[in-house]
C-alpha cells in the first residue's frame, strides 16, 4: 500500500476506534442542533471513520475511500467549530488545541483528495 494511503487509513482507523473506546470527548463536541443523542452521533461517526479507513486501505476502493475521507473531514468541521467555541475560556494551551484543529481540516481534506487521485 502506498505510504500516504496507509497513513491516512491508520489515522482514520485510530480515531474511529477512539470514538468507541473513549466516546465522551467526542460526545461533547457534537453540535447541539443535531437530532438524537450525542453518543449516537459519536458512534455513527466512529463507524464511518472505520469504514472509510478500510476503503482507503484497499486498492480497489481507495479512490472512493479518499473521496469519502475528504467528505468526512469536511462533515466534522462543525464539531471542531463547536469545540473552539466551547473552549474559548479555557487555559491558553487548551484554546490553542481547539483553535488549531480548525485550519487543520484543510490539509486533511487535501490529503484525502490526493490519496483518491493517485490510486
Radius of gyration in whole Å, from Cα?
Answer: 15 Å
Q: What fraction of residues sit in β-strands?
A: under 5%
Gross morphology: globular
Count of runs of 4 or more consecutive helical residues: 6
Mean pLDDT: 95
Helix content, binned percent: over 70%
Organism: Spirilliplanes yamanashiensis
Protein name: Membrane protein
Q: Summary?
A:
By secondary structure, the protein is mostly helical. 79% of the residues lie in helices and 0% in strands. It has one domain (3-117).
Tell me what the structure shows.
The chain is mainly alpha-helical. The chain has one domain (3-117). 79% of the residues lie in helices and 0% in strands. It is built from six helices and no strands. The chain has helices at residues 3-21, 24-28, 38-57, 62-75, 77-86, 92-117. Helix 5 packs antiparallel against helix 6 (92-117). It starts with a helix and ends with a helix. The mean pLDDT is 95. This is Membrane protein.
Keywords, please?
119 residues; mainly alpha; 6 helices
List the helices and strands and how they pair.
Layout: H1 3-21, H2 24-28, H3 38-57, H4 62-75, H5 77-86, H6 92-117
Helix pairs in contact: 1-3, 3-4, 4-6, 5-6
